[in-house]
Each structure stands twice: as C-alpha cells, then as structure tokens.
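Internal ticket - ligand job 376, magnesium ion:
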Amino acid sequence: MGGVRSMVKKGLGEMGFNKGGGAINWFPGHMAAATRAIRHRLKVSDLVIEVRDARLPLSSANEDLQPSLSGKRRVIALNKKDLANPNIMHKWTHYFDSCKQDCISINAHSRSSVKKLLELVELKLREVISREPTLLVMVVGVPNVGKSALINSIHQIATSRFPVQEKMKRATVGPLPGVTQDIAGFKIAHQPSIYVLDTPGVLVPSIPDIETGLKLALAGSVKDSVVGEERIAQYLLAVLNTRSTPLHWRHLNNRRIEELRNEYEDKHDYNLKDLLPNKRKLPNRSDVKYIEDLVTEVQCALHVTLSEFNGNLEEENDLESLIEQQFEKLQKAMKIPHKASEARTMVSKKLLTLFRTGKLGPFILDDVPHSPNPVS
Ligand SMILES: Nc1nc2c(ncn2[C@@H]2O[C@H](COP(=O)(O)OP(=O)(O)OP(=O)(O)O)[C@@H](O)[C@H]2O)c(=O)[nH]1
Ligand SMILES: [Mg+2]
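stdout (structure tokens):
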C-alpha cells in the first residue's frame, strides 16, 4: 500500500483537512452544536448503540465521542454488512470480542439482522429493565452510516410487539450525509417505557489523517463536494489496484475481456463518437441489464489496464499513470461523450455509485489490527 499512501499524501497534502486549515469547510456548523447536544444526552442514556460502517470498523468511529461512549453500556453495530466482505467481517467481530467490546454486524434493512441486535441490547439492559420505569437508548455515529434506517427498523419491530395508538413516526433516511439534523425520540416499549433516540451524524472537527478522511468520503460520510469526486475516485482506484482486485474479476468476465484486449491491441485513435451511447439498443434493455453491462464494462476496463500494466504499484508515479489510463478507459467503457474535465467528474461519479451500491463487490477498507487494542 506504499503507493497509495504517498499518492494520498501528495494529492491531498495541500487540502484543508483541518477545521480552518484551508478553504474547505467540511465540518458544518450544525455538527458542533449536535456534538454538544449528544454529549449532554449521553450522560442520561442507559445504553448506546454506536453505529459504524462495516466497511470502516475503525475509521468510522468518532474519536472525540469515544471517551463518553466507553464509560457507557455500549453495543457497536457494524452496519451495511451487505456491502462488506463477509470473510473479513468475521475477523473484525473476533477482534472486537478480543477487545471485550460487544459488537455485531448488521444490515439495517434486514428485520432478522436488527432482531439479533435487539436481543443483544435487551440482554445488556436486563438488570436495569427490572428496576427503572423509563429507559433511554441512544443511537450515535458519523453521518450516513444508517442510524435512522436502523431506528425505523427497530421501531417497526417494536410496534409489531405492542400496539401503538398514534400514527407510526418515521425517521428520515437518505443517501447523502447530514439528513438528520435534530435529536428525535421513538418509543419502542411500555413498562418500562423504552425510548430510542436518533441523532445527527457527527464527525470530529479535525480528521486525524488524510487516508481516514478519504475512506469516510468513499463510504459517503463526508459530502462529495468537500473532497471532490475525482479525488475520491482516484483513491478508490488506488485501493483496488494495490489490492489487485481487478485481477480477480477475470473469471467473471472472461469473454468480454478477450474482446476488449483485441480492441485495445488495434490501438484505435480516441474518438468521441465512439463514446456515444447506442441509443437504438437502450430502450429495449431493462435498467438491471443496463447496470449489469456497465459493471461488466467497468470491471473489464480495470482488469485489462491492470493486467497489462508493467510498472511498480509501490511507486507513486507509476500508480498515478495507471490511474490516468484507467480514467480514459472508464470514460470509454461508460460511454461518456464529454470532453476532458467534465468527463472525469462523470466517470468519478459513476464509479463511486457502483462502489457504494456494492456493484463492484463487497469491501472492507480498514485493516484488522494485529493485536487487540482497547476500544476506547
Ligand atoms: N446497503 C445498505 N444501505 C443502508 C443500510 N442501512 C442504511 N443504508 C442506506 O444508507 C443511507 C444512509 O442511511 P441513513 O439512515 O439516512 O443514515 P444516517 O446515519 O441516519 O445519516 P445522517 O442522518 O446523515 O447522519 C441510506 O441511503 C440508507 O438506505 C444497510 O444496512 N445496507
Ligand atoms: Mg439520520
């Protein structure tokens, strides 16, 4: 990963990743107030569900909140497990076990998965349930990790257990970070009354290192406009290449890869007309087929460029030139008929969408630490 690290440092070195450290203000004002409000409520909560992104079990922790969280009954919910590599996921749950921290990987949209989390929560609350008339469970985490989606699932499961008079309240869920702006309570049980609190996603005012910032941006916890789609896409390509991921895509797309290899060998001049989508074919295809084809084309483009690359991925300049080549091939693969800078943004946006929706496969971007550290 040496090439990624130096590229990341060089490419983003001049960026204002610290609050007030540059033109980019990625720590919106509401987060400071929200963090204060969360800290205040944490003091009176009986249990906290800390939601993290399963693709970032450590990088999606809000370090500033950790001291307040570690003293509480806490369950770490690694959400979006459907987007995380299951073979590595179990190593992470084992890691948290070895740190003596309750942790469960979940998919907030799956009822059975959320039920397992609720069983763990009930177990941890058992002794207070018998003596307190009212209990408070807080759901906290960085933006866009699925806190509100989880609250809705918990609420739905709970209301199927006990009838509610009032109309079912729902937390707003959305694909961009910063959807929830206020703390809101949802009643999930009578006798004792149990409330879950949805909270706004909050980041630390100063991201400790650039790669953590890029990982958070890639997972969607930081607005794309803050870092820029192109930088995030470059980081994604750097990660994919240094992990040799595109080489594993060969068996998926053998035939198309051979066709492409032949096309590239013909060394056609770059022609904007080639990038126009084939309008005659499109209306007959379903959206699903269109996405499948797009994924195949993208995987093939990345496979062919990486397998024909004879530089050193540990060298920042070599890695950069490979990524440059991949941007060109991706533009063609995605049939984007625009020129230069505009096209790069469009390529980046499409690539990020494919990654974030799991179409490029499941990933975990953090590395499991060798020895257990206290989960502060
Ligand atoms: N694939 C997948 N998507 C999920 C899951 N949970 C939530 N999402 C999606 O992630 C996005 C963010 O979900 P929210 O519940 O709004 O996230 P949040 O943490 O409340 O975000 P903020 O309110 O901005 O802090 C939405 O598009 C959800 O549909 C999950 O387990 N898997
Ligand atoms: Mg929310």
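Auto-summary: The first strand starts at residue 47 and ends at 53. Strands lie at 47-53, 74-79, 103-105, 134-140, 184-189, 193-198.
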